[in-house]
Each structure stands twice: as structure tokens, then as C-alpha cells.
Amino acid sequence: MDGKLNESVKKVLDEYLEVNHHRKTPERYAILEAVYSLPGHFTLEELGAHLEKNNFRVSRATLYNAMRLFLELRLVVRHRLQDGTKYEACYASANHSHQICTVCGKVSEVKSTEIVRVINNTKLRRFRKDGFALYIYGICSSCQAKLTRRKSQQERAKIKKQNKRK
Predict the structure, then answer these.
(1) 34 pLDDT exceeds 70?
(2) Above pLDDT 70, what percent of the chain?
(3) How many Cα neighbours within 13 Å face the side chain of 38?
(4) DSSP codes of every residue in 19-82
(5) Which of 18, 127, 144, 164 is 20 to 30 A off residue 137, Cα-Cα?
(6) Is beta strand 107-109 parallel, antiparallel or unpaired with respect to 84-89?
């Protein structure tokens, strides 16, 4: 985790725990550190494996409880994707745009200042927005190429079949 980000994220957790009279457990901080050291999207299983690899074992319940807390504090965002629920560290960026292939399930981030500008300029009645998540569904270029090749092969086979009949 980046030093400055590390301190900011820990400070948010510290303040919440102090104000709400919760214990500052080593498990919460270890999980938070792991969340911010994992690149991109991850599952709870991947998070647990990462912690275990670093010789820090936590129960599944502890993972779930910590993630629920981090979601509430907006330190983590949850994505419900085709291949299951994934999480992502989000303290430094409140806006998330993703493109998702409906064929293979590949998820990639979309960095678009235009999308952010449009959403920021959208006026909502009786609501203050402080972030957003956008999912754009479609077919990635790899899957599109495979579909095009398959279609071409089927057309060639059909033409061959018609020529044999003549």
C-alpha cells in the first residue's frame, strides 16, 4: 500500500473505531492492508489466500465482517459480476466505470473523463451524489474476433455443402 494512502485509509478506520467504541483488532488492520495491496478486483477467497500466504490466518466470518465494515466506510466497493462477487479498494477514487464482456466475463476499467464530467453535471433532485459505479456490457474484441471467425467458417462450410449438391 502506498505510504500516504496507507495512512489516510488507516486514519478513516481508526476514527470510525474510536467514535463507535469498537476494538482496534490486528485482524481488521491486516485485512485492510491486504485489500490495498491486492491489484484490481478480488474475491474473498483470494483475499483470504493472500493473508494466509503472508502468515496471517483469519476466519471466513472475520473476513466477511471486516469487508462489511470497509464497504460501510467506503474503503472498498463490491461488484456483482457474472463470475461472482468481487471487491476492489476504492478510497482514492469514488467513481468506477467497467466494461464487461458478456461472452467471456472479462472485466476491465474504463478511464473516461467524459463519463465523469457527464455524471458530475447531472442534476439529481433531493440527492447529493458522492460517487458512482457504471457497468457497460458488450463483447470484447477477442470474443468478437472468435465469433466472426466461427461465422465465416460456418458460411464457408455452407457454401461447400451447396456446391457439392450441384
Answers:
(1) yes
(2) 95
(3) 26
(4) HTT----HHHHHHHHHHHHS-S-B-HHHHHHHHHHTT----HHHHHHHHHHHHHTTSEEEEEET
(5) 127
(6) unpaired
Cell of 5: 494512502
Q: Could you tell me how many residues make up the chain?
A: 166
Torsion sign, CA atoms 36, 42, 47, 53: negative
Q: Which of 9, 133, 137 is nearest to 73 (CA)?
A: 9
Q: Which residue has the cell 440527492?
A: 127
Rg (CA), the chain: 22
Could you tell me the pTM of the whole model? 0.73
* Residue in this structure with the C-alpha cell 476492489, named with its chain if needed: 88
Could you read off the pLDDT of 67-101 as tens digits, one per residue? 999 999 989 989 888 888 999 998 867 688 899 99
